[in-house]
Amino acid sequence: MRAVLHKDRVKVRIVRNDRRGRPEGRVLEIVERSQQPIIGRLLQESGVWIVAPEDKRYGQDVLIPKGAAQIAKSGQVVVVELVGPPALYSQPVGRIKEVLGEVDDPGMEIEIAVRKYSVPHEFSQACLALARTLPESVTEADMQGRIDLRDVPLVTIDGEDARDFDDAVYCEPASRGRGKSAVKGWRLLVAIADVSHYVENGSAIDIDAYDRATSVYFPRRVIPMLPEKLSNGLCSLNPEVERLCMVCDMFVSDAGEVLAYQFYPAVMWSHARFTYNEVAAILANTKGPEALKRGKDRVDNLLNLLGVYESLAKARAQRGAVDFETTETQIVCDDNGRIEKIIPRTRNVAHRVIEEAMLAANVCSADFIAAGKQYGLYRVHEGPTPEKIEVLRNYLRATGVGMSISDEPSPGEFQVIANATKDRPDAQQIHSMLLRSMQQAIYTPINSGHFGLAFEGYTHFTSPIRRYPDLLVHRVIKSILNGSKYHLPNLPIPGEAHAKLARRLEKTQAARGESAAKPKKSNAESMGWQAAGLHCSANERRADEASRDVEAWLKCKYMHQHLGEEFSGVVSSVTSFGLFVTLDALFVEGLVHITELGGEYYRFDEARQELRGERSGMRYAIGTRVNVQVSRVDLDGRRIDFRLVTDELTAARSASERSGTEERRRERAAGKPQGSTAARTESAPANRRAARDTRGAKRKMDSTHQRGGRKRK
């Protein structure tokens, strides 16, 4: 292994299995060296310049030739390009490609993350040049052939810190039919920025947008999918300016069923820019100061939106969509990019109003593409695999829930269990396990439905400013309206990450006894759509990983100033090597290693998702309340370690000692050798071995629906 680095592609021969049945191998051949640059700190040791990689998975320092380190200073963060790979008896050699700055510079954690995860962060010159040729505002020529909605009081509702507004809404009471057969309901308009009008198929802007596939959100910084002139200007539905849009015009019955819809290009004028908190305050008190400031007409429009939301929410409950309440957090930073505080992001009625409106438009777009018999990218969320179903059944049985799920469960079964257990003390633990049993959603041209939302067909139509799949959906819808057929541009072939995602999808379907997810006719066009779906899915994961990496670094930096302090928290996850605890006041998660739980052997019960002491019977499960002390913070490893400081540990140790004393007393009375001391002293090394075997294991929390308001729609 000394001759290889992280991300090298190798050929391996399996030589044996270890004690736990896992295969062990030997590297036979290095097939391909990774071309990704390495980010790390430049250091000088005994006159030798080296770069210590920031990503510890590389495992080896990189040597910098004498004189080649003059462009940087010791301690600075640099980007290194390898010029000589490692060998059995020599370290890798590299050259400094870029100097990022000092490790404590504001925003350095973001600079590291975008390079560590290969996030495209600079637009090409061709893209920027083309963006400069675009007009500053909507022209008369742009409005030709569009429905004029400038007199319709469409409004945007977003977060306080939002800068790009890609959706506007309007609702009014309506009826369908005449006389006694008339159906009462609502006319709901969802207007989405018409990005496809400005981003032409295969243009320089389109190529850069496809390469990014999504905007990446960091605390205090966004790496947009489109140049700022489009994302914050020409395509953003800013208040009181003309903007081009694509409209989904729906009739929603009082029962929440979309009985009719149509799509058309339009020109609009946003009559107001609302925030979620402002709308929630107005809906809570229609005679309050917020409502008086906006006027009666705006308040009446918001009440209509509330009415259609209540209808759509009834339909959501009837079809059994999964809707778990979870706590999301928001990091508040100072001017230097350091965390001031971490606060919970509350999801109020305004978030739900917009979410249901966007879901309705997305479902209509999926139905429209399917009816038009064209390729498109669906947002697919499949049900749990048989393995996850079995794990969940065992857990529900072990915790005495008294309910289970079928071999092919519906989302309603999950929601029934969630509703039935919401008042239990371990409700958080149960809901967490329900979420973990589900898969992640992906983009694919094969419509397999959305399990969590309980939709037969679902796409992403509502955020083309920040998601490339939405832009593709807009183009397909336009082609159907024009009676033509949309063809993907000649875009780059997906790389290694996308191949991994494809293999994972095939493995999942094989486990479910299904064939590979391919169109009936495997041709160049279908393969292109599959490649685009895999590319967008993989880049979505990449964006999430980069964002989590930055947040983890910031939280570690934040907790450095709290070393030695004690906090109350709740166990958020249990593994074979310890407990992950989330602090109540700071919303930060850290690890209580299994060796910190006392001088006895703890067994991991996978069915119950808990650690249980063999002697004392002390149990730690998801939802257990504990008090901890911040004992260690590892910035490079993005790890925070806690130790238990409350009566739980004292009680566990006392119970263990009492048990050991009683056992020794019985052994003396029976004249037997006293072996309990050996058993007790061997327990800690055994726990450490178990921790070593599973170190680096990743926890996965699957999400079943779009949450968090504006940036999660």
Structure write-up:
This protein is α+β, with helices and mostly antiparallel strands and 713 residues long. It has 4 domains: 9-102, OB fold (Dihydrolipoamide Acetyltransferase, E2P), CATH 2.40.50.700; 125-331, no CATH class; 352-540, no CATH class; 562-694, Nucleic acid-binding proteins (OB fold (Dihydrolipoamide Acetyltransferase, E2P), Beta Barrel), CATH 2.40.50.140. The protein has 17 helices and 28 strands. Strands 5-4-3-6-7 form a 5-stranded antiparallel beta sheet, covered by helices on one side. It has a 5-stranded mixed beta sheet with strand order 8-15-14-11-10, with helices on one face.
Q: What are its keywords?
A:
713 residues; alpha+beta; five-stranded mixed beta sheet; OB fold (Dihydrolipoamide Acetyltransferase, E2P); disordered C terminus; globular
Show the helix and strand layout.
Elements (H helix, E strand, L loop, with lengths): L8 E9 L5 E10 L5 E8 L2 E6 L8 E3 L11 E9 L8 E10 L5 H9 L8 H8 L7 H4 L3 E2 L6 E4 L8 E10 L6 E11 L10 H9 L3 E3 L2 E3 L4 H7 L7 E12 L4 E12 L2 E4 H9 L4 H6 L1 H24 L8 E6 L5 E7 L3 H24 L5 E3 L5 H13 L12 H11 L5 H10 L5 E3 L23 H14 L14 H16 L12 H37 L5 E10 L2 E6 L5 E5 L8 E4 L4 E4 L5 E3 L3 E10 L4 E6 L2 H24 L5 H19 L19
Parallel strand pairs: 8-15, 9-16, 23-28
Antiparallel strand pairs: 1-2, 3-4, 3-6, 4-5, 6-7, 10-11, 11-14, 12-13, 14-15, 17-18, 19-20, 21-22, 21-27, 22-23, 24-25, 25-26, 27-28
Helix pairs in contact: 1-15, 2-4, 8-9, 9-13, 10-12, 14-15
